[in-house]
Automatic annotation (TrEMBL):
Region entry Disordered, spans: 79-99
Keyword Transferase: yes
GO molecular function: ATP binding
Keyword tags: ATP-binding, Kinase, Nucleotide-binding, Serine/threonine-protein kinase, Transferase
Annotated ranges, domain Histidine kinase/HSP90-like ATPase: 17-124
Name of this chain's protein: ATP-binding protein
Pfam name, any one: HATPase_c_2
Lineage: Bacteria, Bacillati, Actinomycetota, Actinomycetes, Kitasatosporales
Family annotation (PANTHER family): ANTI-SIGMA-F FACTOR RSBW, ANTI-SIGMA-F FACTOR RSBW-RELATED
Signal peptide location: none
Length: 139
């Protein structure tokens, strides 16, 4: 399989749970559940956190796209808010504010792209058994 992708919009009400289920179903089509169940869980966690950020911070629906290019599964979530997503210092007494820290911890890389109608946060997950495509040679 060379390249494949899926896209879906998730409304503010009920979108996070539906997004997790939708992502898991599509990642299973790549057979990663058998090969790398931990990576599947990481992808689902990233989708959940990015949809939550769109709903809570941008106060908008979330447009989610999964794109597999045979090297990385790109998990992109677009929302209606501009600007860079904030990643506050972790506070053990606060029940929220760790979404981007989690995405950073479970993905191989992530970035934000600004657009006229908001921003898109994209996290990349390397294929199971493949070297990290973002690793710098010699490091």
């Amino acid at each position: 399989m060379k390249a494949v992708g899926w896209a879906q919009s998730f409304p503010v009400s009920g979108g996070v749970r539906a997004g997790r289920q939708w992502a898991r179903e599509h990642v299973e089509a790549l057979e990663w559940t058998r090969e790398a169940p931990g990576t599947v869980d990481d992808i689902v966690l990233a989708v959940s956190e990015l949809i939550t950020n769109a709903h809570v911070h941008a106060r908008s629906g979330a447009q989610v796209m999964l794109a597999w290019d045979s090297r990385c599964l790109h998990v992109s979530v677009h929302d209606a808010a501009g600007g860079e997503p904030a990643s506050p210092a972790p506070d053990p007494d606060r029940p929220s504010g760790r979404g981007l820290l989690l995405v950073d911890a479970v993905s191989d890389s992530w970035e934000t792209r600004q657009q006229r109608d908001g921003k898109t946060v994209t996290a990349c997950f390397s294929a199971p058994g493949q070297p990290d495509p973002h690793a710098v040679a010699g490091k």
